[in-house]
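Shipment paperwork, digital attachment
Item: protein structure file
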Amino acid sequence: MTPSASLAPSDRASGRELSLQQQRVRSAFWFLAPMVIALIAAAAWPLLRTIYFSMTNTTLSSLYEGQWIGFDNYLSWRTLSSGKTIWRGTLVDPAWWNAVWNTVRFAFVSVALETVLGLLVALVLNAEFKGRGLVRAAILIPWAIPTIVSAKMWSWMLNDQFGIINDLMLRMGVIGQKIAWTASDATSMYAVLLVDIWKTTPFMALLCLAGLQMIPKDIYEAAKIDGVHPVRVFFRITLPLIRPALMVAVIFRTLDALRIFDLVYVLTPNSKATKTMSVISRENLIDFDKFAYGSAQSTLLFAIIAVFVAVYIWLGKVNLTGEGR
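Attachment content:
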C-alpha cells in the first residue's frame, strides 16, 4: 500500500490545498519579481548610495573622490586648546532643526484639516442628489492639477501688488492694506497651508468616499427605523466602519506632507518660516555644494519618516490592506 493511499480523505484534501497554496505563493513571487527588481533599482540603490555619501566628504565636483569620515556629517566635535568643545554636524545645526519643526508643523496642521474637510466632502458626495457624478468629477480638479502649476497659479493670486486675493479682501474690508502673503515670515506658512489644503483635500475625500461606499446601506436603514439621530449614526456607525480606510489615507497623506518640496520651493523659496527638510537638503546638495552634508540630511529625513510610519502603524493598529488588526 502506498503512503498516499493510507491517508484519510481529509488528509489528502489538506495536502492538495497546501500544494495549491504553495503554487499560488510561487506564482505570486514570480509576478512580483519584476516590480521588486524595479524598486531595488529605483529606490533601494539610491538610498544606499545616499547613506554612503553621508559618511564621506564628497562634493559635487568630486563625486568619486570623497573620503570616508564616518558620522562627522551627523555629529562631530573638536576640543580647543582652551578646553572649549565645538560641536558640528546636522544634529546640532539650528537650520536643520528649524526645518524639522516647519515640516512637522506643516504635516500635522495640513493632514488634520485635510482629513476633516475631506471627510465632510466625502459625506456630501456619498449622498444621493442630481448631478452627483458631475460634482464628483469637478471636485477632483484641484488634485489633478500638477503641484508646480498650482503653486505658480497661487503665487500670482497671492501676490501683494496685483494678486486677486488682496484685491478681494480689500474690497470686502477684511484687510486695510495689501499683504505680502508669500514674502512675509508671519504669513508664508499660512499661504503654503492654504494651497496644500486646497489641492489635497479632494484626494482625502476620494479615499474617504471609497470607504463610505463599502458600508452596507442596510445598516443605515436599520438605524433610521430605530430612530437613531444622524449625528449618533455618524459617530457610532459611519466613523468606526471607515476607520481602516481613514487610517490608510492619513498615513499616505502624512508621508507626502513630511517630504513636501515642490510647493514650498515655488511659493516661498527663501523663507526661513517655511523651509522644510526636503528644501534644506536640496540646498546643501546642489546650491551650497555640500553634497555629503545634504546626503546626511536626506538620510535623516528618510529615518524620521520610517520611524513615524512604524509608530503610526503600531499605535493605530492598522495594516496597509486597509483592515484593522
